[in-house]
Design goal:
335 residues; alpha/beta; 4-stranded mixed beta sheet; 10 helices; 22% strand
Amino acid sequence: MQHRSVKIVATGKYLPKQKVTAQQLADKLDISPHWIARKSGVMTRYFVTDETASYMGAIAAQQALTAAQLTLADIDCIICANAVAQQAIPCTAALVQQHLQHLQPPLGLPVPIPAFDINATCLSFIAALDTLSYLIQAGRYHRILIVSSDIASIAMDWSNHESCTLFGDGAAAAIIEKSSDTAAILASRLETYSSGAALAQCLGGGNKHHPQEHPAHPERFVFQMQGQAIYRMATKILPGFVQRLFEPVGFTMSDMKMVIPHQASLMAMRLLRKQLHIPEQALMVIAHDHGNTVAASIPMALHEAIQQRRIQRGDRILLLGTAAGFSAGAMVLEY
């Protein structure tokens, strides 16, 4: 089933307090800000100070609830769609729920609701929206809060300048419910090519490389990325992937009012636009003043497109991205 009558009711966003410019990062890394501008194009990003992923996610969620004129009592499921969990146990969604209950006293939750995580790294928001839309369509849940909140700055390999100058921290949230109008998910697709699993990874933090057992190997606990290899794999896969997404529903790229991509890098999005024949005015780009905020990247760009009135109700939009794995994901929405 491709078509699902599911509507994005409202969105929210949170950026950390600490703003970091290309000049500040260049000074730290002893490189030129012009090099950062040319390589990543990210001139401003935000890094956490005392914020946690669950706190950022809760603030973004509260913003979405306020925009929708709802309270936590109106939500019957909370999902965290992050690339990296705040801690191993419990899931980040439970910690977001805890923060939200503190933000909305004395209401709290009249009935306990489920809170759990869905992880597809940078595609976590699309994976969560795709999966949960079927549960809404089936009537299992009425209204769901999806939160994507990631902190990239804590695990950067600062010796890899091409990678570490791309990323920022932040959170975004969306509330979804059964649609009573034309808003719907029209098509979606996820594909994983595990031959590229080693191209973007963090080896430590799971149960294979525990810090207690590997204290002499800090490199296992930082993010490692082979940017050029990822780009080559993406350019090979994405044209066919988009064709497989569009064909069953008879769409072409010209049918999309707006394309909201994962904000991997300015260079990657420029090349993506040319390769997939996306009109320049139809591509939503926020990486230059947000950075790559990992799983929060796509919902954050969606939030900005709504806030800037670049999309209106009834517009057909495409969410599109790639992720570690190596995975490709996309969704066509009538917003």
